[in-house]
TrEMBL record:
Enzyme class, spelled out: oxidoreductase
One Gene Ontology term of the molecular function aspect: oxidoreductase activity
Protein name as catalogued: NADPH:quinone oxidoreductase family protein
Lineage: superkingdom: Bacteria
Lineage per the UniProt record: Bacteria, Pseudomonadati, Pseudomonadota, Betaproteobacteria, Burkholderiales
Originating organism: Ottowia flava
Length: 325
């Protein structure tokens, strides 16, 4: 097998494509021949030693992937050899093969392409958990999605529309705003050229959004929260801008608003039955054509560093997927 190995987490340039022995699964593990793996923001942080989870060195990055089970370890009953699965295990995806815990593997129904499957779990599970569980989104409410043209933003638009909400999508270019409208967003804000607070007042009649979906952080969090509706919920999803913002807590008091943390990974571990039911609903929605990841582009696994560069340029609309040919 071959894999992109991180032996020193000082950045993407330190990754090397190396031949390694193909491992055999231990108890509870499966060996997966990887067909596709998506590139997510945590995959950048982890090779820079900036992610909250710090794997033991050396490691293979790539948190989310899909492929075919080639071998199973002792005690594995939920998947079998020859079955196609998707998995989000945190590491191992940027390779030709990997070992993964069987309990993290999602068996794929027939007709679920590996490229879509590799771009599915993280974004849709995060947005479902955020909007419907943590945000308690109701039909007729208004959702502001920050960073709406990215992977999680894309999934948030789709799930909010399924929930019957009005969606205001905020992005950094007119092209990205048009992309968000193609996904179903009702209104858009280009926060590079428009004042976020003034535009939100205009679009909501001064009321403000009921739910703010915020995977960005940085300079947009405070103006968005200052614009929130009475009893609004600000969902803290991530910090793609790189800066963790500080908000004066009195703002929550005067709006009767909530700042709500969203950590799908721990939800899945702490509440496995609820997570399994959620994943089943998401798979059903995919089969019904209600949700589908938009693939910005497919790139050969050998071009991982170019994929990182494209993600870092903020040009990506939807998801980047690496494929083994």
């Amino acid at each position: 097998m071959h894999a992109w190995l991180c032996e020193n987490p000082i950045g993407v340039d330190a990754l090397t494509w190396k031949e390694m022995p193909t491992p055999q699964p231990a108890k509870g593990q499966v060996l997966i021949r990887i067909q596709a793996a998506s590139l997510n923001f945590p995959d950048l942080l982890i090779v820079q030693n900036k992610y909250q989870f710090k794997p033991e060195l050396p490691f293979v990055p790539g948190s989310e992937f899909a492929g075919v089970v080639e071998a199973v370890g002792e005690g594995v009953t939920n998947v079998k050899v020859g079955q196609t699965v998707a998995c989000l295990s945190g590491t191992g995806g940027f390779a030709t093969h990997t070992l993964a815990p069987a309990k993290l593997c999602m068996p794929l129904p027939e007709g679920f392409p590996a490229v879509d499957a590799a771009a599915f779990i993280m974004i849709y599970a995060t947005s479902h958990h955020a909007l419907l569980d943590r945000g308690q989104l109701k039909p007729g409410e208004t959702v502001l999605v920050l960073g709406a043209a990215g992977g999680v933003g894309m999934s948030a638009i789709q799930i909010a529309k399924i929930a019957g909400a009005k969606v205001i999508a905020a992005a950094s270019t007119d092209e990205k705003c048009a992309f968000c409208q193609s996904l179903g967003a009702d209104e858009t804000i280009n926060y590079s050229t428009q004042d976020l607070r003034e535009r939100l007042k205009e679009l909501t009649g001064g009321k403000g959004p009921d739910v703010i979906y915020d995977p960005v952080g940085g300079p947009f969090t405070e103006p968005a929260f200052r614009s929130i509706a009475w009893r609004g919920r600000h969902l803290v999803v991530g910090f793609a801008a790189g800066e963790i913002p500080a908000i004066k807590i009195n703002l929550a008091l005067v709006k009767g608003a909530s700042i709500v943390g969203v950590f799908w990974g721990d939800f899945a571990k702490r509440e496995p039955e609820a997570n399994a039911a959620m994943m089943q609903e998401l798979a059903t929605w995919y089969a019904q054509g209600k949700i589908k990841p938009v693939i910005d582009r497919e790139m050969p696994m050998s071009e991982l560093k170019a994929a990182y560069a494209r993600m870092g340029s903020r040009e990506v609309k939807g998801k980047l997927v690496l494929v083994n040919e």
